[in-house]
Design a protein that fits this description.
By secondary structure, this protein is mainly α. The protein is 72% helix and 1% strand. The chain has a two-stranded antiparallel sheet with strand order 1-2. Helix 3 crosses helix 15, helix 4 crosses helix 17 and helix 10 runs parallel beside helix 15.
Length: 491
């Protein structure tokens, strides 16, 4: 792309860009292996054991809770909060992220995404339950919260909470949105009109303008938009994927054999750990479902429920929808198609080639439309989280309207930049900022795990007694003075 190939500053610009890309790659590699893979695995297993597999054991209860109306019609329901978090989880990573993992890591990446999803769902339960317990309410009675609030209030670490917010903003306003924009424009490489010097800039500009327009409309618009777009987008994509899979049904046995053979080829995995199916499965799985990252709790805290465990259970479904449904749909569609899989087609081209085996030229067009919808909802969901972090850093007050307008315009500019940067730089930036969030949030959740687990026991105890679960902080030994919401006056 001309803009990055030295049209303004010549060879020095190219050299500087390469140095930055190499540095980001090195940090990315060290962060995920061995640090993050160990932290995520230990946290997931720890929570799974202590909750007795809550993410599996209470799966039917999670589905039932989606049907419950909000405690107050003026507030956000469990379903709406789940859809907002799903809007951020469900995005370009479900298409391009999975494709990249398969092309660069191998088909075994699919298996490791499944494992990390199931194990990580327990982390999703813990973080969202904690967000509900330590949430706060504003003068209008609306709820808000997230990891920064339980880190500050329960761990008494306001500085660490502030650092978490900084990384959250860096992740969702910069890292993820750079990548989201890049992924979207990459789908247009399949068309003859694509010009590497011009097309990315045009696409980035259009997406930036649309993003700015919606962001300036406020948070309520985000919720209403995602509640309509996400289900339609997800169902349509799964249906198309299933059609491709069933058209290639004779390849299904060999496809699963290939997935499991590659997943358990430990000689190959440990021979090149950084580029193995294990690491790519963990990276792209985490990027896609965000279990334990500390993002979804920001949406979870906004729900008005009678018991914190309810929202924790609902959020496990969001993780499953993202990985076991949408990511798996992409993986199986691509692998069953039998099209060539290599570094040259990693990303959108691999998916477009796969869907073309059944739908011909219409296939790439459908993927482009799906990517536009996925990218749009991801961008909006991402910045919903950012608003919450800004409130925390501004001493629990909403920043001025002038500041928010300027900030949202800056976010739109990031979207434009994302369309013209190299793929490796976009992925590394997103991986690193997301990894920093996870390395703060998961240890905090482990330290506060007993609170969430006691809350789950209280919920199950009341369900067993045949009464509607209503949370009272004193019932699990919490000091009500440390909470802003769950007090006698709120019962």
């Amino acid at each position: 792309m001309k803009l990055l190939n030295g049209c303004f500053c010549g060879k020095k610009c190219i050299w500087g860009a390469r140095m930055i890309a190499e540095l980001l790659d090195k940090i990315d590699g060290i962060m995920y292996y061995p640090i993050l893979i160990i932290v995520m695995t230990l946290a997931g297993i720890y929570f799974t054991i202590l909750t007795k597999g809550v993410q599996i054991r209470l799966f039917p209860e999670s589905i039932r809770l989606l049907k419950e109306p909000p405690e107050d019609k003026k507030n956000v329901s469990s379903l709406q909060a789940m859809l907002v978090s799903t809007a951020s989880r469900v995005g370009t990573g479900n298409i391009v992220g999975v494709s990249t993992a398969l092309c660069l890591g191998g088909p075994g990446a699919c298996f490791w995404m499944w494992i990390m999803c199931i194990v990580g769902a327990s982390s999703a339960f813990i973080e969202s339950t904690l967000a509900q317990i330590y949430k706060r309410k504003n003068d209008d009675g609306e709820c808000y919260g997230g990891p920064a609030y339980y880190i500050e209030r329960a761990l008494h670490a306001p500085v660490l909470a502030g650092i978490f917010c900084v990384f959250l903003i860096a992740t969702y306003a910069v890292g993820f949105n750079l990548l989201c924009s890049y992924n979207l424009q990459s789908t247009f490489t399949a068309y003859e009109f694509y010009d590497a010097k011009i097309t990315p800039i045009i696409i980035g500009a259009i997406l930036a303008v649309l993003t700015a327009y919606c962001l300036l409309g406020g948070g309520k618009r985000i919720i209403s938009l995602t509640s309509i777009i996400v289900p339609v987008m997800g169902v349509a994509y799964v249906i198309i994927s299933l059609i491709v899979i069933f058209r290639n049904i004779t390849r299904i046995p060999s496809m699963f054999a290939m997935i499991f053979e590659d997943a358990f080829n430990f000689k190959a995995i440990f021979g090149g750990m950084a580029g193995s199916c294990l690491i790519y499965g963990v990276k792209r799985g985490l990027y896609s479902n965000e279990a334990g990252v500390g993002s979804a709790p920001n949406a979870s805290a906004s729900a008005k429920v009678s018991h914190p465990a309810k929202q924790g259970l609902v959020q496990t479904l969001s993780v499953y929808i993202d990985t076991l449904l949408l990511c798996t749909a992409t993986a199986l569609m691509c692998l069953s198609s039998g099209v060539e899989r290599n570094e040259a087609v990693s990303g959108a081209p691999y998916v477009q080639n796969a869907i073309s085996t059944v739908f011909g030229k219409v296939g790439p067009t459908f993927i482009t439309v799906a990517m536009i919808l996925f990218a749009f909802t991801t961008l909006l969901g991402n910045l919903y989280y950012v608003d919450n972090a800004l409130i925390f850093l501004n001493h629990k007050r909403k920043p001025s309207k002038l500041f928010m307008k300027a900030f949202h315009l800056g976010c739109a500019a990031v979207v434009l930049v994302g369309a013209i940067i190299p793929m490796n730089t976009a992925w590394a930036a997103a991986d690193i900022t997301m990894g920093c969030m996870t390395l703060i949030n998961l240890p905090a959740c482990m330290l506060l795990g007993k609170v969430a687990i006691d809350t789950l026991k209280d919920y199950e105890k009341q369900k067993k007694a045949g009464v509607k679960p209503v949370f009272k902080a004193r019932d699990i030994g919490l000091n009500e003075e440390e909470l802003d919401f769950w007090k006698d006056s709120d019962d």
